[in-house]
# Entry
Amino acid sequence: MSPARSAEPAAAPGRAHRLTAAGTAGTAGTAGAAAGTAGTAGAAAGTQTGAEAASPAVHAIDLRKQYRHTVALEGLSMTVRRGEVFGFLGPNGAGKTTAVKLLLGLVRPTGGEALVLGAPAGDRETRRRIGYLPELFRFQSWLTAREVLVLHCRLLGLPRPSWRGAADAALQIVGLAGREEDRVGTFSKGMQQRLGLGVALLGEPALIVLDEPTSALDPVGRHQVRMIIRELRDRGATVFLNTHLLEEAEHVCDRVTVIDKGRSVATGTIGEVVGRQSNVRLRVAGLADRWWQPLAGFGRWVADGDGLLIEGIAPGRVPELVQEIVSLGGRVEAVVPEQQSLEARFLELLGET
# Structure
């Protein structure tokens, strides 16, 4: 089994492949080819020009993709800032994979435009600065972990003397130190996922695109991947996290966008997407029945067992509400704020509630 061939024209002799990828389904190799002088692919975010640093990592405007009669993406617009962890959320069939392929230059858009690291999506030189972990990939089972990484160092065009050191550093980062001489065929699915992440980190890319990076990992592995993602952000890299695991987004993302039917339906921090309103449960004594009617302006009041639920109250108004209850002669025995979960808001945005 040989490394995957790119759909792009073959690189000239002495040129290197980039858009570092863990491999595609059934193959190991790169997801696309990008020309550039061998040995320069290690350029990281720290080598950006002032103009590059000022531009977003990703900027998409009305991005569209149609396959014959099927509309896969319909007017997607979003901006990913440099140095942030950005979550790309949506149900199956929402257009997430299509959007990633467009941003990486693996397919061409039907309409709209996108800039990635300040250049048009698919720019060959820019793709040298992108690390990519696809959801489905496979490495040659007879290769050792170190051999897989060295192969990708070669495809990436890193200087030959750095190959072993870069491979060992990647193994250390993803928790596979000590397994460098073990064959990939002996690895569990979770270990192969870690190795794929190590491949995506070779060459210190400025943008790392991760497609469901924790889907095959146990709780310890998921925690380690979150730590890696945070460390990448701290060093100045941008991480684009494509996931349907909302818990992962809540743990590591600075901002998220939720897409549905090929369009963005919400973008912002987790707090902004969830909303500034919340619910509060109260238990109050010393007041007559339906005492809360004069306080309807705080939110929607619902009887809830031996207490009351106030839906849609702004968190900053809770102290004011307690003060009003006390002024009415009531005794507040319990106040339990409840923030809407990302999952509940996600379902609400998709019209599933």
